[in-house]
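Pasting two entries for a bug report.
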Amino acid sequence: MTTTNLTPLPQTSVSHCPATHFTHLTPRAGNETSQTISRAPVCVRVLQQEARWSRGLMAGLRSGSGATTRARQRGHRAAGTLPTLLPLLLLTCCVRCSAAAAAAAAAKPSNIILILADDQDVLLGGMTPMKKTKALIGDAGATFVNAFTVTPLCCPSRSSILTGQYPHNHEVRNNSLSGNCSSLQWQKGPESTAFPRYLYKQKYQTFFAGKYLNQYGKKDGDVGYVPPGWDQWHALVGNSQYYNYTLSVNGKEEKHGDSYEKDYFTDLITNRSLRFLDDRSPQHPFFLMLSPPAPHSPWTAAPQYQKEFADVKAPRDGSFDKLGKDKHWLLRQPVNPMPDSSLTFLDSAYRKRWQTLLSVDDMVELLVKKLESIKELDNTYIFYTSDNGYHTGQFSLPIDKRQLYEFDIRVPLMVRGPGIKPNQTLQAPVLNIDLAPTLLDISGVNLSSVNVDGQSFLSQMAPSLRNGTVRPVFLVEYTGEGHPTTDPACPKLGPGLSQCFPDCVCEDAFNNTYACVRTLNKDHDLQYCEFADTESFVEVYNLVSDPHQLENVWKKMDPTFLQAMNQQLIKLQSCQGDSCRDIK
């Protein structure tokens, strides 16, 4: 029998089948390497089999030795069907190909991006400059109008986000090393079981860029320390900066100067995240956590945005420049009314904060465009939030956070992604300790195996995917920070204070230590707080009738109610895991 070689099938006949996946190496912790295996497209392999079958058939047709006339006639009939048969084979192949691709896409967990701003309020207009972010995330998904931090300060709040735990469980008390911020105790304990490690085990490609924890890289572990769970690590050493900073890049020191093109930190985070998306392996899901410095001080905007919002001033409504006469002593000490110098300062800070956020708005737009271009947008959850709120003149406090009031504990939260219907405004309270379990829920982790105090809110924004419950009460807690000696510029104040301004108005103190029960449901909107000080001071607010918390109604409340709130607070302050979610 004579054999005949057929011309190879042209590539155009399978151009709509999935492209070949090439080998891609991703650095992992230690000496591990994740690798995407090179493989031929499904349709190419099927067509190769069909081509081999056709070659055999044609060879038989063209060979006359030992063949009967009937056989030749059968062969000619078969040969006549080949032009019709091959398109059918192609169609069958590519249907199989498309089905296989769809099955593979369905099997791959969704990608996740978490964007964490620094000190961005929501009550005082902090989201106003972010028109692109609101359109691309909020309008395209869900906006949570009752999102809270469980502690209004950077390091303990970020530690709660990473662990899904209240501060009394992860034990990070404030921004200092002695307050357990990025300490060896933190690294060996709570950080070792933070959510990035679980995502890593789920085969996520993980990327971090931005501010991590305020004391990271400054002492314990230095820049060579990379927390577990991260494939790519681009972390700021210390607190937020826009220029002249140091990064730990996968454990190696990288210094930056004051060139906008090379060093502006928000843009650097954006550019490196886009590069990561280009270099990723398409076979595995990815997780990016991007933590820009904005709108934290020193409020250095990109050059093109430094003249924006020239006429904007801090809002003068609500509790602005109101005397905190019935509040904790720290709120009773500011000068009231505020001097013109303080007003000028806080108005300038307010404008600059907005200016810095415009670069974050650009970041969101570029990320969404990149996800569209690599055809991953529809399979990616994008979260946007902040570590805590902020105040600018409320109760005559110039600028800061750390206080128990709504302006400091409420944060922006918007999410878009698979299963989330657009233009949703959700009322149920969500906490920053809920972020970790929600991310793990999306990734497929069994939440019963994870030690978290929070709960997934995937059911709230995508009820078609999950069932869930809404918590009736939650805890807000903070440990005050102070200096052991008196500030020489303010000798009359004595020791124990910190964050003091030139006019001797201080934003924090050792005994600015409090815990609050926050009740928010269809029947109640209440806050009950106790201070750990010599006064055993209590503040209670009915936010239905007093949304700006102008009147402390503690002395007007029924003693039975106060006792019940005290007992609820005691339970919350000692809760762990399930017991934090079960308190009614």
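Entry 2 (this is the one that rendered wrong in the viewer):
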Amino acid sequence: MGEEDYYLELCDRPVHFEKANPVNCVFFDEANKQVFAVRSGGATGVVVKGPDDRNPISFRMEDKGEVKCIKFSLENKILAVQRTSKTVDFSNFIPDSSQLEYTQECKTKNANILGFCWTSSTEIVFITDQGIEFYQVLPEKRNLKLLKSQNINVNWYMYCPEGAVILLSTTVLGNVLQPFYFRAGTMSKLPKFEIELPAVPKSTKLNLSERDIAMATIYGQLYVLFLRHHSRTSNSTGAEVVLYHLPREGACKKMHILKLNRTGKFALNVVDNLVVVHHQDTETSVIFDIKLRGEFDGTVTFHHPVLPARSIQPYQIPMAGPAPVTSQSPVPCKLYSSSWIVFQPDIIISASQGYLWNLQVKLQPIVNLLPDKGRLMDFLLQRKECKMVILSVCSQMLSESDRAALPVIATVFDKLNHEYKKYLDAEQSYTTALEAGQSRSSPLLKRPVRTQAVIDQSDMYTHVLSVFTEKDVPHKFVIAVLMEYIRSLNQFQIAVQHYLHELVIKTLVQHNLFYMLHQFLQYHVLSDSKPLACLLLSLESFYPPAHQLSLDMLKRLSTANDEIVEVLLSKHQVLAALRFIRGIGGHDNISARKFLDAAKQTEDNMLFYTIFRFFEQRNQRLRGNPNFTPGEHCEEHVAFFKQVFGDQALMRPTTF
């Protein structure tokens, strides 16, 4: 398989740590995404590394027994270490504060601490087998204050730092989950919910394992993902992932089922709002997108993999060490290894090899794996880094080898402009609210974020349409595509930029399709604009009616006559400007200097001669003398005329 076939890859700059061995224990903290390598209980050193830390944190601590759990508070201010089932030890890492350790015992008698989670830089939750205890840590006093506690039998727990939600497994079977939400010193109990087990359990022992549950934020919503190894319906083979939506308010609801159509060992990640399911037996992965249309049965939506199963792209482990030593070739990494541990949302850790990777999605290979262009666009528009890939798809569907049918092209344009319009509307609402002074009364007013899914007219013009019109493509197809894009913009009530109209006109003129140009203008397919009117004026030598079409357009735009003259002169349409002014009978009052300046700027000597002669004749007619008066400030133009054409070319006064 070529590189263009793999749509998942491990990041190229993994976090490297000392591999796990009898002396070195490795821990991972999901909130800070940090790996702790603890040697000999910390006595010979602790090294902490995170994905963004270029400088790892290193320190030593006294070996007071086996470390069960070790985590920093947010911002690395306080370190918490659990060594027994009853207590957690704390050390301050705040500059100028006491370095002495302090300890907190769990409040509930006979309870065992299963673990702990930091919910802020000074708030921590102990999870015991008998409940949950929420504390505030007071580093300067070196003690903790209990904020709230709740008694409940707990089998195991899970923490989602993005959503600040802790999930507790309760009841004998373990399938009743109780969520708690933490925010700024408060702990809220959310409604509990039951996970439907694949079949009626035969025994009354723990049936739901934490291995089969994950929590992740997908499209801004928190979901609990349950890996059900056998479908509840007997006619369906294979495992499935059930997604329960966990809102801040209201009950948790089963929303989506992802059909895996296979059995075995699975692991879940979430990358760029896609659910990635790894299958160990076949060493492949599949991706699901819950935003794409699935089969809805009235309560849940069933989804199939977006693409065929593929392995993660083969990965070479770089040899560590100084440059001269690393001349030996890099070692291929064993993918889907049984020593891999997966964490949410996108982390894969190999403790035996000492690496932490972020899993990434590659969009370019997907373009050729998803033939349905409409579905491909729906998929790409939801991805973070999608702009250049979308533009390449647009170019590809207009290319000779992969040309798409016009209805498909129209569908793609509509999908792009739907996103574009959504952004323009949001921007408009924001501006209106800002002008109305709502920003002071409503602090929630935020400027809409322009994501990569917003493909505007300049993007399409620069990367796709202008390139496409220069290629050797049948002109009928070129015009059809341009008109389709303009139709789509009009359908979404997006003002069409003049450069798109110019592109249409230039294409029509190039192929002498003046009758079509006339129709487009007559039926207002091309919207009126000043730049367009000027372009039409410049076409007069090829197509004489263009002059009148242009003037009509300027009149419809209610442009003042002197403004029309300015527009024409700025476009070096000096003769057109003169004709226009004569047409409305204003040529006796215009400034000769302005026209002579414009004519000289064109560097066309014959044009300058024509304009100069026109004003000489006007002077003769109005004053009986062709010479310019000092008040007209045309001395330099007279000198230039003499220099180019000689004194004898000047008009002589007519005597009667």
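Dev reply: Rendering is fixed now. As a check, the viewer should reflect this: Residues 560-655 form one domain.
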